[in-house]
């Protein structure tokens, strides 16, 4: 999440649908999914193809799978039957009882009470709501009926267990939260008659002049809940917000508007909120304070300016809004100032520094300043920024510079931007427009540095950089300052910029030895150009391509973009990758010299990616036939060489063992017979 990079992606076949959320088995570190209601899939992170993952077809439709850290996964069926995953896998086609009749499950949750897993779910039938409490180890099930609320219905539920008592919180359509207490009964027999549960009012979301329409409710601790919903103000458009309430004193602790919109869902795990804000998954840290009347009243007084609360770290949201809304002058000033307000209050320093409060206003004042004044003020701003706010401040500075570049095409502070990227620990998410502006200006040096330093570059931008590097002419690159540290140690160049061909002796490969292995006859005059002995690109372009090889990516998301790469550029890139592959094979440790040089794994991964994206095209192109033939021949020779090494692996290990046993001061000659 910190790098905003996808780490894995698995796809179902066309026509298959995931019918309940995927969970992780904490004990086995496996993922568990259900598609098409009855088909269970289990796989691990290293598995690539979901079709080859473990599959079990069940006898009944699954409603939800719950994974408990100490209790294992629990499967709840739509008919109300409950099984642990281990019991279910012993006989996937076992009959599942139908506990509920004509009722529809609306919510479910799993909890641990000591060593006892407890499953709670609510159902609805003809406007009536029921609560089921299931103890898995004791196989006891208790059914309750919720007290009816005239003209109002529950929208969502959440629960927690304390001292053998289930506290069920229900968010009703009258903008109120009600509490239901259910004791965990010790007997194992089911009740003959369902007990009616009485509820008590816990919260009413009424702030003077506003009404909060909640859509999602989560429990933070015994005295606090978080509500995601929309804030309705008479005469204005509803605004989505996240708020935290004290249920003990019925007060608002803190709230934050979400201008980019949400999906209406809120998750809470290990003192972190997870919600969809705009198009991204946002993680917000919080810390529950000890509930007291003084603290609650204090928070209520500050509710008009909720950002001053130390209850929640709103930095993530504000950084996102600052990036998205920077074009709006007023919103930038408001958010930047409120951000500094929040952070200065959270600081251990009691006094608020006046300069930290004016970041947003300073950026607005500098919008029309001269280049010299702008850069001077921004340098001072970065130098004065306190450590906790340094990254956010630098991100604002870069955003201000790229914003001016967009408004004024003649303005481009190349040296200033290079200085910031080289000396500051930035990321793509802090300044998402920087690389787009660099691509537009064709600033190869800045793109190279960003590719080497940013850990979270989107695959679309990586592809755009690759395409730009391959399309630019060698003559144009001669006049561009590019960092050559990654290539200068293994590409020898004469004064006329032509590479000096050197004799290559690859590990386990020689042209004479393997000539009979390739059926394709290649003319000698063309063979020297494609067999990996000469670099197909110049120094500058090689250095830029190495920066692309260093970028972190996810294959599933990069492959669609690579398929759009023009065929001639794809062949050129593959020639360079083949050249690097041969160069790596010259070394015993398969490592290229120099700094930021690509590794053998990076080279091979990109070769596989490129071949996957363009194999059909390359097979059809005559100019690619020779390259593919040489690549095939070289790889086959490498495989044969390593297979020969595997044959003597046992003898080499025995030799290593004898070396450890031999006394260091004795001289001896030993003969090892390798069979």
UniProtKB/TrEMBL annotation:
Residues 1-287 form the Nucleolar protein 11 N-terminal domain. It is found in: Nucleus, Nucleolus. One of its GO terms (biological process) is maturation of SSU-rRNA. Residues 363-673 form the Nucleolar protein 11 C-terminal domain. GO terms for molecular function: RNA binding. It comes from the Eukaryota. Keywords: Activator, Nucleus, rRNA processing, Transcription, Transcription regulation. InterPro entries: NOL11, Nol11_C, NOL11_N. The keyword DNA-binding does not apply. The keyword ATP-binding does not apply. This is NOL11 protein. It comes from Gymnorhina tibicen.
């Amino acid at each position: 999440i910190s790098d905003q990079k996808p780490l894995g992606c698995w796809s179902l076949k066309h026509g298959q649908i995931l019918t309940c959320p995927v969970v992780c088995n904490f004990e086995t570190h496996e993922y568990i999914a259900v598609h098409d209601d009855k088909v269970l899939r289990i796989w691990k992170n290293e598995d690539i193809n979901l079709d080859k993952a473990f599959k079990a077809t069940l006898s009944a439709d699954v409603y939800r799978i719950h994974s408990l850290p100490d209790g294992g996964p629990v499967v709840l069926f739509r008919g109300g039957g409950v099984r642990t995953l281990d019991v279910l896998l012993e006989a996937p086609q076992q009959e599942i009882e139908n506990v509920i009749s004509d009722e529809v499950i609306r919510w479910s949750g799993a909890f641990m009470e000591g060593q006892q897993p407890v499953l709670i779910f609510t159902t609805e039938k003809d406007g009536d709501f029921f609560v089921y409490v299931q103890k898995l180890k004791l196989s006891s099930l208790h059914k309750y009926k919720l007290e009816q609320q005239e003209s109002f219905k529950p929208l969502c539920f959440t629960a927690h267990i304390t001292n053998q008592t289930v506290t069920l919180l229900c968010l009703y359509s009258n903008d109120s939260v009600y509490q239901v207490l259910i004791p965990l009964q010790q007997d194992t027999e089911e009740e003959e008659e369902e007990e009616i549960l009485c509820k008590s009012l816990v919260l009413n979301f009424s702030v003077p002049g506003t009404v909060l329409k909640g859509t999602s409710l989560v429990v933070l601790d015994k005295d606090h809940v978080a509500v995601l919903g929309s804030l309705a103000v008479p005469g204005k458009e509803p605004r989505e917000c996240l708020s935290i309430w004290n249920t003990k004193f019925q007060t608002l602790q803190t709230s934050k508007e979400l201008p980019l919109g949400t999906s209406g869902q809120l998750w809470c795990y290990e003192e972190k909120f997870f919600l969809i804000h705009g198009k991204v998954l946002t993680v917000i840290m919080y810390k529950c304070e000890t509930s007291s009347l003084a603290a609650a009243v204090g928070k209520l007084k500050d509710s008009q300016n909720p950002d001053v609360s130390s209850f929640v770290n709103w930095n993530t949201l504000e950084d996102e809004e600052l990036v998205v809304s920077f074009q709006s002058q007023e919103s930038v000033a408001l958010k930047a100032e409120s951000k500094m307000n929040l952070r200065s209050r959270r600081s251990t320093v009691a006094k608020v520094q006046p300069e930290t409060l004016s970041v947003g206003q300073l950026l607005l004042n500098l919008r029309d300043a001269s280049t010299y004044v702008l850069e001077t003020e921004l340098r001072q701003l970065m130098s004065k920024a306190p450590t906790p706010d340094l990254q956010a401040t630098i991100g604002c500075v870069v955003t201000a510079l790229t914003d001016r570049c967009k408004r004024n095409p003649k303005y481009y502070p190349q040296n200033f931007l290079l200085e910031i990227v080289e000396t500051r620990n930035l990321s793509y998410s802090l300044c998402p427009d920087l690389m787009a502006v660099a691509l537009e200006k064709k600033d190869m040096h800045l793109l190279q540095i960003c590719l080497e330093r940013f850990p979270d570059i989107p695959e679309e931008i990586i592809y755009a950089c690759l395409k730009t590097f391959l399309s630019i002419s060698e003559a144009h690159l001669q006049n561009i300052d590019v960092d050559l540290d990654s290539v200068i140690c293994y590409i020898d160049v004469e004064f006329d910029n032509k590479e000096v061909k050197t004799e290559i002796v690859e590990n386990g490969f020689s042209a004479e030895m393997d000539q009979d292995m390739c059926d394709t006859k290649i003319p000698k005059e063309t063979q020297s150009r494609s067999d990996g002995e000469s670099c197909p690109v110049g120094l500058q372009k090689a250095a830029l391509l190495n920066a692309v090889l260093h970028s972190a990516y996810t294959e599933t998301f990069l492959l669609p973009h690579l398929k759009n790469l023009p065929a001639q550029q794809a062949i050129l890139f593959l020639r360079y990758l083949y050249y690097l592959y041969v160069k790596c094979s010259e070394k015993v440790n398969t490592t290229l010299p120099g700094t930021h040089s690509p590794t053998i794994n990076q080279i091979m991964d990109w070769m596989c990616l490129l071949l996957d994206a363009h194999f059909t095209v390359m097979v059809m192109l005559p100019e690619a036939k020779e390259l593919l033939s040489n690549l095939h021949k070289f790889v086959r020779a490498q495989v044969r060489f390593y297979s020969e090494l595997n044959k003597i692996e046992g003898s080499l290990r025995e030799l290593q063992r004898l070396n450890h046993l031999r006394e260091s001061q004795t001289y001896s000659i030993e003969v090892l017979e390798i069979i």
